[in-house]
Write a structure and sequence with these properties.
The protein has 105 residues and is an alpha+beta fold. It is built from 3 helices and 3 strands. The structure holds zinc ion (ZN).
Length: 105
């Protein structure tokens, strides 16, 4: 049992673990794996709260949408599995810059 804690998006990036997300919709059961560095960048640009801890509201999960049914994520846990969700975040440097500009308004 490790002492690593995964209570924020930043923790996943720090520990080099991908984020395994599962859909909140009980009829969907869809899961996906996202890159923690992309997720961290995404959250910072939007100024979202990074906490994934349900005890603290788990608000970060509300910012991940199921790519199949559109429901919010119900849980997040660390995984070493390969990233499966590639189109959620900007694909390249240019995409990130455009997003940054858009958010600055
Ligand atoms: Zn779903």
């Amino acid at each position: 049992m490790g002492s690593k804690r995964f209570i924020s998006v930043a923790d996943f990036a720090r520990h080099g673990m991908n984020i395994h997300l599962s859909c909140r919709n009980g009829h969907c059961h869809h899961t996906g794996v996202v890159d923690p560095h992309d997720a961290w960048m995404w959250f910072r640009l939007h100024r979202f709260q990074l906490s994934l801890d349900f005890c603290l509201g788990g608000s970060a999960l509300d910012h991940f949408r199921c790519t199949r049914c559109g429901a919010r994520a119900g849980s997040a846990r660390p995984t070493e599995n390969a990233v499966t969700v590639l189109d959620f975040f900007p694909a390249d440097e240019r995409g990130w810059k455009m997003l940054q500009r858009r958010l600055r308004g």
